[in-house]
Design a protein that fits this description.
The complex is a heterodimer. Helix content of chain A is about 80%, strand content about 0%. Chain A has one domain. In chain B, α5 runs antiparallel to α6. Chain B has 2 domains: about 110 residues, Phosphorylase Kinase, domain 1, CATH 3.30.200.20; about 220 residues, Alpha-Beta Complex (Aminoglycoside 3'-phosphotransferase, Chain: A, domain 2), CATH 3.90.1200. A 5-stranded antiparallel sheet of chain B has the order 1-2-3-5-4, with helices on both faces. Helices cover about 45% and strands about 15% of the residues of chain B. The N and C termini of chain B lie far apart (about 55 Å). The chains are: A mainly alpha, B alpha+beta. At the A-B interface, α2, α4 and α5 of A face β1, α6 and α10 of B.
Chain lengths: ~140, ~350
């Protein structure tokens, strides 16, 4: 598709901030419109990367589950990790990726808490590496 | 919208000031956060035979808020710190039932000729950043050093004892996350567990905590003087380091965390606060409160995201907070806690 959605959003944002915002009453209305314009830039960024951010995180979490499952003595948790590691993202729509991401995050929280109770510092460090990567991917990049 | 507020407001103030001919004019909504609708207006009335004209600010509850707060707390905090001599607008009237304006509201004096910084501005204070920062952290020290009972605020929500300050606050914000999260938050949950496993020492004293003391919540004039400390709606009793940790948070640093609030160097900020408050900022305790600050931020952004996503408050600042600020604080916490694991 050309123009692509992110390009439309960026051009619209620029038009909103340069041509329309100055016509609004100063103060609240201008502030609200300027924030909407800024968020259109954020939306453009997310349109381009959103599926990749989520799919990459889901893939990272599954890989970590696969690696750490062997270290988990608790049979129930180990079985959950193994099963989750074998799932995949069948659809790349944002909503489907979010649904899978929520399931994986729920189990990641349980795993992290379990490893803290077990004083398994090496495995905790691996989770923090994943969380750092994930948080960095989701940061909104200012131009 | 303007007439819907102007006429009932005029009627209310005419009764309040015993001035039947009072006129409200120039009512305009101004930015003031998503937790209250904020309006500027002017009133003209007769008092003791003299014509009085003054600018006032109306803060009215929205239909749903970024974070639920007590408007009487905010009103009383304005009054107490205004009397203490800090640059805080004089509160004029509080109506908890809403009455004429349908929703609870309060009115305070307008401070004119000032600016407020946006979090997204790279260098809002320019050549006045040192002066702004010196005043900003000295005023925070005065808040921390003031006796809540002497201020008449000793009954504010609080932990009861110095030992419970940290756990009271962690519980408060954990509850917000429990109630408002729309998706699992592994970094917030890890932060809560870390805060509970590594408690700070008891507070040196219990003080009034502003609750949202940061860049963007004060007005400054063209000469770099702070003229008004605003947004006391999250005020409560607690550990003095809570406000300092929040003020030092990287989200409010305008891109340079080594200069908190976009003003002075971090070490200088802490030294000013210590001198002004008469308290100590123990580095380990402060580090705990800085982790807590980012967790508290996450809770607020999670709550804002829910208000927006569920259609209760479509103010774009809720969407922005639930996206930009949430991602920011997740990153801050992952880096900080990842380094300690």
């Amino acid at each position: 598709m050309s123009p692509e959605v992110d390009q439309i959003l960026l051009i619209s944002s620029s038009q909103l901030s340069s041509a329309l915002v100055p016509l609004l009453p100063a103060g609240y209305s201008q502030g609200q419109a300027s924030l909407l314009s800024f968020m259109m830039v954020m939306c453009a960024q997310e349109y381009e990367r959103g599926a990749d951010v989520r799919a990459s995180e889901n893939s990272d979490v599954r890989a970590l589950f696969r690696t750490l499952a062997a270290e988990i003595a608790d049979r129930g948790l180990r079985a959950q990790l193994t099963a989750a590691a074998d799932t995949r993202d069948e659809s790349l729509t944002i909503s489907a990726l979010n649904t899978n991401n929520a399931e994986l995050r729920r189990l990641l929280i349980a795993l992290h808490a379990h490893l803290e109770q077990q004083d398994n510092h090496a495995a905790q460090a691996r989770i923090w590496e994943l969380l750092k990567r994930s948080a960095a991917r989701r940061l909104v990049k200012l131009a | 919208m303007s007439d819907e507020i102007t006429l009932p407001l005029q009627s209310y103030l005419a009764r309040k000031f015993s001035a039947p001919e009072l006129v409200v004019s120039d009512l305009a909504r101004i930015p003031g956060g998503a937790s209250r609708e904020t309006y500027r207006f002017r009133v003209i009335y007769e008092q003791d035979g003299e014509s009085v004209e003054r600018g006032l600010i109306l803060r009215r509850d929205p239909t749903a808020s970024l974070i639920e707060t007590e408007r009487s707390t905010e009103f009383r905090a304005y009054g107490a710190f205004h009397k203490l001599g800090l640059p805080v607008p004089e509160p004029i009237a509080l109506e908890l039932e809403g009455g004429d304006l349908e929703r609870p509201f309060f009115i305070m004096e307008e401070i004119t000729g000032c600016s407020v910084a946006s979090v997204l501005m790279p260098d809002p204070y320019c050549e006045h950043r040192e002066k702004n920062g010196e005043q900003f952290f000295a005023m925070l020290g005065r808040i921390a050093g003031a006796d809540p009972n002497a201020l008449g605020l000793g009954d504010f929500d609080g932990p009861g004892t110095r030992e419970l300050c940290w756990s009271h606050e962690v519980a408060r914000w954990e509850t917000v996350i429990d109630e408002d999260e729309r998706e699992p938050q592994p970094i917030a949950r890890a932060a809560i567990r870390w805060l509970k496993r590594n408690p700070p020492p008891p507070a040196q004293t219990i003080c009034v905590v502003h609750g949202d003391y940061r860049t963007g919540n004060f007005l400054f004039d063209p000469d770099g003087n702070i003229r008004a400390i605003l947004d006391w709606e999250m005020a409560h009793l607690g550990d003095p380091l809570e406000d300092l940790g929040w003020a030092l948070d990287p989200l409010w640093a305008h891109g340079d965390p080594s200069r908190p609030a976009g003003t002075v160097a971090r070490e200088k900020a802490i030294a000013i606060w210590e001198k002004s408050s008469g308290l100590k900022a123990d580095p380990q305790a402060l580090a705990w409160w800085e982790i807590f600050a980012s967790l508290k931020g996450l809770a607020i952004w999670i709550s804002a995201a829910r208000e927006y996503a569920e259609g209760r408050n479509s103010d774009p600042v809720n969407a922005f907070s639930g996206w930009f600020c949430l991602a920011f604080h997740n990153h801050v916490l992952a880096e900080r806690l990842g380094a300690t694991s």
